[in-house]
Amino acid sequence: MKKIMRVFLLVLLLCIAGGCKHETQENEYKDQNIDIYYINRDETTIRSEKYEIQSSDISNTIEEVLAKMKEAPEKAELKAAPFSDIVIHAIRLEETILTLDLDEKYNSLPYTTEVLVRASIVKTLTQIPGVEFVSIEVGGAPLIDTAGEVVGLLAKDQFVDNPEGQISNNAQANFLLYFADESGTNLVPVQRYMEYNTNIPPEKLVAEMIIQGPSAGEDSYPVVNPNTKVISIIMKDRTCYLNLDENFLTQVYSVNSDVTIYSLVNSIIALNNVNKVQISVNGKTEVTYMESISLTNYFERNLDLVKQQTEETNE
């Protein structure tokens, strides 16, 4: 009888110990403070707000944190990462890899916005104990970057914060830009060497440089209304879809319409990862630019307008 009692007490003690251990593991999440990363209003940076976890286990914690990311932050200068209307089809945690399968609407995010959303997701979720890597799928397929490559596993150290909190990696490159000549009837090639943020798609950077016009010392003239805004840029199958606002349709310079169009097209295609460019205005291509060029077309490189080439041919 005593032997039976000793066995019973031993089993009871083991059960109590196991239960205490389980409770400790659950309480590892509850009341822990983490940083929820949001995007600023200009969509140029991510910044965080402190949040106290309410859930006790990892599965509920992940869902809680994702839900919190979709809520409006307290700071007025920030906004929730813009995927609140994007359905999360599946959440899978295998070892330390958290996979999110997102709705295909995710692919419609402008590239610069998507990079910030990606950074906010990874930097937020990898604070949860047990999550070291994040893998993003879209419609069940791995996330693809603008070069057509699989993004793969993402870790928090892949996104570096500068002192202002902006996700930033800088590089230097030489850009070939095309502006107008003095007559406004030809294109002039300009080489511009500069440092830029690699999180900004080079196609957007080039389009914005064309809109801003030539720099001092560049013997050329502007071609696009400087009030024009780049709404979005999407790269797909080596085609650049450039969406501009309505200011693009108002020409303020004495420049031929084809010079304006091919200033943008030739400059973007000079990046070498683009074969064609389609230009839209507020998302619409059923537009005729300056009553002469239909934007329903896919534009390819046109060097016939380049003044330097014309002069060499006439020699």
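^ that was protein a. below is b, sequence first then the tokens
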Amino acid sequence: MEATKKGAKQPRVIPGFGVSLGVTVAMLSLVVLIPFAALAVNALKLSPGEFWSVITQDRVLSSFAVSLETSAVAACVNMVMGLILAWVLVRYDFPGKKVMNGMIELPFALPTAVAGISLTSLTSENGAIGKFFAMFGIRIAYTKAGIVFALIFVGIPFVVRAVMPVLEKFDSSFEEAASVMGATRVGIFFKVILPELLPSLLTGTGLAFGRGLGEYGSVVFIAGNKPYETEIAPLIIMSKLQQFDYTAACSIGLVMLLASFLLLFLMNLVQVRNTKILRGGEA
């Protein structure tokens, strides 16, 4: 006897789909869609020529370049260091492991302004880290290096938390089989382990990059805010708001929003492609 007939409705784990969907759409609209729509509406009050004039000002373009450049560098560093941290936390047992694992979440819990002040005091020429590098003529605070330093701090949890679950579920028998067949440790990592970690690693790196694009609190102090040098796009938006130029602020914000949407779209493409590959392998 067949357990279920073809086309028969399956019982829902959580009943009330219509109500649940309505609540979900309402919350999504209030928290995400309506604010974004308001941003777009305010930006579109300008004519296409005026909008283009606002977002192509030299100072605005420079801030876009600074935000993109520093976020990309920080994301690349976080990709490598986050993978190493996740590897250590999953594969090894050592004293203080639970404390270190908990500290990974610190950038999420710490107010960004507090993080910015702390990082600035550490990396300034009188700080513990900045003083050491100053002996070699290297400045960190009030430079792009300082911005990257801050973005590494706020972005590394995304990579670690994205990679750790995949590492925890990884079957070590694949490594043993590759080792028996004569593969070196480097070969095992790059040909066996890394392909499994790559989708989650790219996802975490993309999230860290997106966080860096919009980061303000932890960067504004350490950047120094020098026009055309260390001025980030969120700071330009804040300065426009302080000047009550809401349409210009919304126009710049809309560009940042579109960049974030594009990043999320690319991340979803990677996840969909990985899912298809996995299903093809299982078949």
